[in-house]
């Protein structure tokens, strides 16, 4: 696809004197599923925060749909790695979903039931959040990100804390959203087999851009050694 959704140019981000990201460059096209891989502390979550406008680049730029991320935040759905909350708070799924606002007067919360159904959670809107399993809660977070016709979905380790069967289901869901809605998806993941199966582009990140391209061109023994060190690679599941 030639229409750019994300443009990152010479992005540098520093914490005081510590360089977390160093001159990162890449583009994401409309309808892409792009995975970001790299070791712990490589700057993956920092990069996501720069893309959604939570972090201001020290140098370089990030454009979403050609604009500053904060100008188009209503078009971005973000699913964080961890969403901490008191499980004793008596808030229902419907009430939690209703907290998501996009600033568009024409959008109401009437589609909450529909997006919950889309993620396989029919008839849970009156359940308390604290009653949900980890996999169900992650689906609620994805449904919440889908409200108001988001054009870009960003996932930070979407299967964190979910068993391997649930993990496969979450990624199947992301792929289905991408295919049915044409939604562009950016995913941080540590599962190389998942990345190889679902992504059409991969960013290898370790503070600097190690490589960027299709999974078959990027996920090679030589690149993985550069990224993770000796011993990294794919395994075959049955």
CATH topology term of the domain at 4-82 and 150-228: Rossmann fold
Q: Helical proportion?
A: 25-40%
Strand content: 25-35%
User: How many DSSP E strands?
Assistant: 9
Q: In DSSP terms, counting alpha (H) and pi (I) runs of 4 or more, how many helices?
A: 8
Sheet with the most strands: spatial strand order: 5-6-7-3-8-9
Which descriptor suits the 3D outline? Answer: globular
Report the oligomer. Answer: single chain
Separation of the first and last Cα atoms: 33 Å
CATH class of the domain at 4-82 and 150-228: Alpha Beta
- The CATH architecture category of the domain at 4-82 and 150-228 equals 3-Layer(aba) Sandwich
Largest sheet: 6 strands, mixed
Which series of helices and strands comes N to C?
Answer: EEEHEEHHHEHEHEEHH
Poorly predicted tracts of residues: 103-107
What Rg, in angstroms, do the CA atoms define? 18 Å
Structural class: alpha/beta
The CATH homologous superfamily of the domain at 4-82 and 150-228 is called P-loop containing nucleotide triphosphate hydrolases
Domain ABC transporter: 6-232
Protein name: ABC transporter domain-containing protein
Organism: Candidatus Falkowbacteria bacterium RIFOXYC2_FULL_36_12
GO molecular function, one term: ATP hydrolysis activity
In short:
The protein is α/β, with parallel strands linked by helices. Helices cover 30% and strands 26% of the residues. The protein has a six-stranded mixed sheet, sandwiched between helices.
